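User: Predict the structure for this protein chain, please.
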Amino acid sequence: MDTKSQQSYQQKAVELLKADAEKIAKLIKVQIDHLTLPQCPLYEDVLDTQMYGLSKEIDFAVKLGLMEREEGRIILSTLEKELSVMHDAYTNKK
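Assistant: Here is the predicted structure, written as C-alpha cells:
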C-alpha cells in the first residue's frame, strides 16, 4: 500500500473513532437531560458497554497501524473528561 493510501486510511480511522466517541457523549447527555440518574444501573451498563466497545475499536485500529496508541488514549481520555463534566453538572443541579 502506498504512503498516501495509508495516510488516508489512518485519517479515516481517527475520524470514525472520534465520531463514535462523540456519539457516546451525546447518548450520555441525552440520558442526563432526561433526568436519568447517573447511578442508575442501566445508565452505567450503557456507558460501560459503549466505552468498552470504543476501546476495542481503538485497539483494533492501533494493531492495524492506523493510529498511534497515544492518539487512542487521548480520544478515550477526552471522552472520559467530558462525561465527568456532564456527570458533575447533573449532580450539581440536584
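Helices lie at 3-33, 41-63, 69-93.
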